[in-house]
Specification:
The protein has 161 residues and is an alpha+beta fold. The chain has five helices and eight strands. Helix 2 runs antiparallel to helix 3. The relative contact order is 0.18.
Length: 161
């Protein structure tokens, strides 16, 4: 088995899946489906309820966005940017994160914010042609994401061999 090239190995990867409370609320959809089909056939109702619960929970996980730093690129959901255009990231937690997601959120910035995820990372964009002055990204581990971005920026400065 060959080792992957260093530029293709993810430095950081996180799926912004919903919180446990969202999963518990979504799981209530299964019994509702089962109750709907109970007058027809109770066995069919139980099967459809279980399949409905599995489908709802699976879709919640599959459709949640990913944040990833791979090689010299930062991916946040569908968006991506080369690390050479990233400034010094700022990690926020607690009350500072709430302020970064709320009153201090730049109107022209690009945002990937998910409820139930406390941490926030704000990354200034240095590209003069980019209309967004910064990216604001929800993350459970803002310090690790900031370190991964710094490493990707170093890789962007160092020429490839």
């Amino acid at each position: 088995m060959q080792n992957a090239a260093p530029d293709t190995c993810p430095i950081y990867r996180e799926r912004l899946a919903p919180s446990l409370w969202v999963f518990l609320a979504a799981a209530a959809g299964g019994p509702m489906i089962a109750l709907t089909f109970t007058p027809l056939n109770s066995t069919l109702a139980l099967i459809l309820g279980a399949l409905g619960t599995a489908a709802i929970l699976g879709l919640l996980i599959l459709l949640s966005p990913q944040v990833q730093v791979e090689g010299r690129m930062l991916y946040a959901g569908r968006a991506r940017i080369d690390a050479q255009w990233l400034g010094e990231p700022e990690a926020f937690t607690g009350e500072d994160a709430r302020a970064a997601r709320g009153p201090k959120l730049p109107a022209r910035g690009w945002h990937l914010i998910r409820g139930g995820i406390n941490g926030v990372l704000v990354v200034p964009i240095t590209d003069p042609d980019d209309p967004a002055p910064s990216w604001t990204i929800s993350t459970r581990t803002p310090d690790r994401l900031a370190a991964a971005i710094r490493l990707a920026r170093e890789n962007a400065v160092t020429p490839a061999r």
